[in-house]
Amino acid sequence: MQTEKPAAMPPFSQECLTTAEATARLQQYGFNEIAREKTLSPLRRMWNHVKNPLVILLFVLGTLSWLTGDIRATIVIFVMVLLGIVLRYFQEMKADKAAQKLKAMVSTHATVIRDGNQRELPLKLLVPGDLVILSAGDMVPADIRLLTAKDLHVNQAALTGEALPVEKEAKDVDDTIDNPLEQICYCFLGTNVISGSATAVVMHTGDQTYFGGVAHSIAGERELTSFDKGINRFTWLMIRFMFIMVPAVFLINGLTRHNWLEAFLFAMAVAVGLTPEMLPMIVTVNLSKGALAMARKKVIVKRLNAIQNFGAMDILCTDKTGTITRGKIVLQQHLDVSGKDSQTVLDYGYLNSYYHTGLKNIMDDAVLEHEELETALKIKETYQKIDEIPFDFERKRMSVVVAEKNAQHLLICKGAVEGILDICTRIEMNREIKELSAIEKNGCLELVHSMNKKGFRVVALAYRQIEPGAEGTGYHISDEKELVLLGFLSFFDPPKETAAEALERLQRLHVDVKILTGDNEAITRYICEQVRMPYDKILLGHDIEKMDDKKLDAVVTSYNIFARLIPSHKKRIIQALQRNGHVTGFLGDGINDAPALKIADIGISVNSAVDVAKESSDIILMENNLLVLEQGVAEGRSVFGNIIKYIKMAASSNFGNMFSVVGASAFLPFLPMLPIQVLTNNLLYDFSQTTIPTDKVDEDWQIKPRKWTIDELQRFILYIGPISSIFDYITFFILWFVFHANHNPALFHTGWFIESLFTQTLIIHVIRTNKIPFIESRASWQLLTSSIIIVIAGAWLTVSPLARVLGFVPLPTLYWIFLAVILIFYILLTQLMKNHLTKK
After folding, report:
1. Nearest to 609 by CA among 625, 618, 620
2. What is the per-residue pLDDT across 476-528, written as a single tens digit (0 to 9) for each?
3. Residue 56 CB neighbour total at 10 angstroms
4. How far separated are the first and last CA of the chain, in Å rounded?
5. Which residues in 483-515 are b (16+ Cβ under 10 Å) and which e?
6. Phi/psi of residue 429, each to 5°?
7. For the whole model, what pTM was predicted?
8. pLDDT at 539 (0 to 100)
C-alpha cells in the first residue's frame, strides 16, 4: 500500500560541492522550488462553469429553439444560462483574490559552502549534496541531514502539529522509528530554527522534499464535491425523464395528427418545460447570498459550492494545533512540590524570566505574559539584579541573582527537572524547608511524569539564599549548588476558549467531530478531556499504516481520535469516511493538513494558517473563533434548503405537467397546449421562483445535515408529480364536458394554461416547508409577492392585448369557481402526500 511519506534519505557525503558539480546536479534535479496550484485562466474558469451537464443541456435546447425559429424560447433559455454562469464566475474571481498563489514558505537565501567557501545563495539554486549552515531564526531550506549540531531546537509544528520545539542532534538514524519526521538527525523544508546552530547536508530539494510532496499532491484539479455530484445526478435524472417523455409526446402527436413539424415543435416545448432552466441561476444566487452572509461574519468563501457542503457536512475532522488549541504556548500551571497551585512559584518564575537577558525562549515569553506581576511585586522598586548565570544546553538551566533592598541575595534557578534535582539538597513543603530525601525526589519525578503524560512541558524552579559577597564579586555555575526545590512551571498549548462550546453546538447540529493530529496520543487525550470530547478510543498512525482501505473503511467511523498521523493518513481517513457515505469537512492550518483539506468535501482553514493550507481550503475563517463554524453550518443548510425547494417543486411540477401532456395528446384531437403557451407558462412560472433565495428555512429543518439523496428526490417526483396530473385531468374533464371545449381548442388551451400556472406557482408554498403552509410556516414577503404577481399576470394575459397573439380567450366566470375548488383540494392532497413522505 502506497502512502505519502518523506522520501528515504540517501547516502551522503560531508565534502562540499564544487560549482561545476552543483551546476550538473541542478540540471539533474531541477530548481529547489515546490509545485504550485496553477491559477486558472479566465477561459478555463469559464469553461469549468459551462461544462456542467445542465448548462450543456440548456445550450442544446436553446440552439434547437433558435434553429426552429422559436426566438422567445431561445432568449429565455440563454438569458438564464448566461446569468447563472456570469454570477458564479465573478463571485469566484472575487473570492480567489484572497489566495491566488502558493506563497513562499522559506527564506529566499541560504548559507551554503561551495568550493570550500561560505556564501549566500538563492534558495532555488540549492542541490542535493550542498553543505548548509543554520543558525537561530533561519528557515530550513531543504530536507537535510545534520552533520554537526549545537543546542539545535527546531519548530516543526506546521508539519507535525506539535506546538513545542523539538531538539535535533547529529546522530545516526534510529531504525526503530518509521516516521522520518521523528528522526532526530533530519530537518525538513518548511520548519525553522528556534535556537542553536548546525551544519547539514542537503538530501532532497523541490518536489522531492516532504513539503514539496505535500504541495505537489494538492496542485492538481479538485475532485467533485457531494454538491457537484448531486447537481449532476439530478441533471441526469431529468435527462432520463426527457428521453422517455419527449419522444413519447413527439410520436403520439405525430401519429395521431400527421403533422410532424407541429409535433416536433410541441415536443421541443415539452423538453424546455421539463428542464429546470432556472436551476443555475437559483443555485448561484442562493450560494452568492450565502457567501455575502458569511462575509459579514468575517469568513472568506473561496468556492461557492462549499457553502452547501458546509450544511450537508455530517462529520467534521479537525487538526488539533492552532484549530482546537491556540497554537501558542502558555504557562498553564505553577505548582509546589506536592502539586498544589503556588503563587510563590509563579512570583519566582516571573523574577527569573524578567531579569533573564539571554535569548528568551517561548516559555520565558509565556511567563512574562503575566504582566500584572511587575506591579504586584513592585519589581523596579523592590528588587535589584545582582548577576546572571546564562543558559547553556549542557546544564539546561539558567539562574538570576536578585536582592531585595538591604536583604540577602536570592539565586533563582530554572531548568530541566532532572538537572535541577541533581543540584538540590533541600525541598520546600508547606512553607517548611527540609532535606530532600529519595522518597521526596521520586515523588517529584512521578508528579512531573504525570504532567508529561498529559502533554505538559515542565521546568523545575529552585532557589538559594546567599550572604552578599565582596563588592564586585560575580556569580558562577559553581554557585548553583545546595538549592532548595520550590516547585514546577508547566507549559501547554491550551484549547481555545470557544472550542468546547463550538464542538457542543456542532454536536447539537448532528455534526460528529473527529480529531486528526500528528501530535502524540497523550497530549491529544488531554486536550480532548479539556474540550469534553470522548477520548477512550484512539487510532494511531502506525496502526493505520497496517490497514488496507477495506479494513480502514470498516473501523474509521468507530473512532473519534486519530493521533501520530502523517498527511497521507489524514487523507486516507477523509476518503474512508466519504466511502462510508459521509459528507466530510476538515479544519486545519498546517502544511501537514493540506492534502486532507483538498480532498475533503469542505476544506476549512483559519487566517493564521500557513499559505499552503489556505490555498487548499474552500473556506477561511478570518476570526480565530470556532463558533463561526456553527453559523456556517446553519447558513449552508439554509442555502441548500432553498435550492432543494426549487428542485423539488420544479421537477415534480414539470414531471406532472408533462405526464398530463402525454395523456392529453393521446385523446385530444388537437394539441393540449400551443408551444408558445407552454413556453409562456414556463417563463412566468420561472420568474415566480427567482425570489426563492430570499425565503426563510424552518429552524427544525436545519437541525440535521442535509445532502443530496437522488432516490429520495426521485420518490418525491413520482409521488407529488402525478397529483398535479390528477387535477390536470379533472380540469380536462371540466373543460371538455362542462364548457364543451372539445369544439373550442382555444378555450381548452387557456383553461389548462391558467390551471397549470396557478398550481405550479402556488404549490411552492406547500413544498417549501414540512409544516402546514401559511399557518405554521410562511414564505418571505418577496416570495409571496412574486407568487401573487405571477398568477395575476397569467390571468391578465387571457384578456390582454397579447391574448390573440398567444392564442388565449376569456374564461367563463364559472371556470374561476371550479379553479378555486381545484386549488384547495390540490393543496390539501399535496400536503397529505408530503406528510406521508416526510414520515416515511
Report:
1. 620
2. 888 999 999 999 999 988 888 888 888 888 888 899 999 998 877 888 888 88
3. 13
4. 43
5. bbbbbbbbbbbbbbebbbebbebbeebebbbbb
6. -130, 125
7. 0.68
8. 93
Longest dimension (CA), the chain: 127
Give the containing element (helix H, strand E) for 58: helix 53-67
The answer for residues whose C-beta is within 8 angstroms of residue 583's C-beta and 6 or more apart is 226, 309, 312, 313, 314, 315, 601, 602, 705, 707
> HEC string of 63-90?
HHHHHCCCHHHHHHHHHHHHHHHHHHHH
Contact 635, 290 (CB under 8 A): yes
The C-alpha atoms of residue 81 and residue 78 are separated, in whole angstroms, by 5
- Residue 286's nearest CA partner among 618, 643, 632 is 643
- Residue 468, SS3 per DSSP: coil
Are 305 and 225 contacting, i.e. CB atoms less than 8 angstroms apart? yes
Distance from C-alpha of 551 to C-alpha of 562, rounded to nearest angstrom: 15
Catalytic site residue from 143, 207, 228, 319: 319
Name the residue with cell 535569548.
359
**Helices H / strands E in the chain, number of each:** 30, 23
pLDDT, tens only, 719-739: 888 888 899 999 999 999 999
The C-alpha cell 440548456 sits at 58
H helix runs in 484-610, sequence order: 499-508, 521-530, 541-545, 549-555, 567-579, 594-599
Report helix angle 675-688 to 260-274, nearest 10. 10
Q: With b meaning 16 or more CB within 10 Å and e meaning fewer, what string describes 10-29?
A: eebeeebbeeebbeebbeeb
Rounded to the nearest 5°, which phi and psi values hold at 168?
Answer: -120, 145
Active site residue 319: yes
Residue listed under C-alpha cell 549548588: 481
Show Cβ contacts of residue 192 under 8 Å, excluding neighbours closer than 6 positions: 137, 138, 139, 140, 154, 155
Report how far residue 96's alpha carbon sits from residue 614's, in angstroms, rounded to the nearest whole number: 11
